[in-house]
Design goal:
Number of strands: 6
Helix content: 25-40%
Mean pLDDT: 86
Order of helices and strands: EEEHHHEEEHHH
Structural class: alpha+beta
Largest sheet: 6 strands, mixed
Radius of gyration: 17 Å
Number of helices: 6
Strand content: 25-35%
Shape: globular
Low-confidence stretches: none
Distance between the termini: 27 Å
Length: about 160
């Protein structure tokens, strides 16, 4: 599944889409699974690094925190860098869902839940596990240093 952006009357909207291939048809079909919300692209106003954000030694921080809390801090850092103040429980405006296009991904209710509930798949080959984690992080629009990614992956793995 992936996020697709459609434009209607100069407004951009995000949808969760699944591609399915049928035996009789030479072309794949796209099926819309869910409407995610109107897309807003905020400008990056700051460039705070993760170490500055946590005000702590990275090794101690990673040892003391759960993976879910680390992901929440990463999300909050991106929100801070884009000067956004939102409720992570429900990203909406006037009770309508919103999708923030941040960095190379989309921060919305779907990507936040996917990231916070991420677990390494048991039957995934060893080489594909880090790719799954990287896709999930990037899909949520989070920029992460290679060193921090490796540390988070090790924490998830063990």
């Amino acid at each position: 599944m992936y996020i697709r952006i459609k434009t209607h009357k100069n407004q951009r909207y995000a949808y969760l889409v699944q591609t399915k291939r049928y035996k009789r048809s030479p072309y794949p079909k796209q099926k819309t699974i869910a409407y995610l919300g109107r897309v807003i692209t905020p400008k990056k106003t700051q460039n705070i690094h993760f170490k500055e954000h946590i005000n702590n030694n990275l090794k101690d921080y990673l040892k003391d925190k759960k993976t879910k809390d680390i992901f929440l801090d990463l999300i909050n850092l991106e929100l801070k860098n884009h000067t956004l103040k939102i409720n992570l429980e429900d990203i909406s405006e006037d009770s309508k869902p919103i999708v923030y296009e941040i960095n190379e991904g989309f921060l919305c209710n779907y990507t936040i839940k996917k990231l916070l509930n991420f677990k390494l798949p048991i039957q995934t080959p060893e080489k594909d596990a880090p790719i799954d984690l990287a896709k999930t992080i990037l899909e949520a629009g989070i920029k992460i240093s290679p060193n921090l990614f490796i540390q988070i992956f090790k924490k998830l793995k063990y």
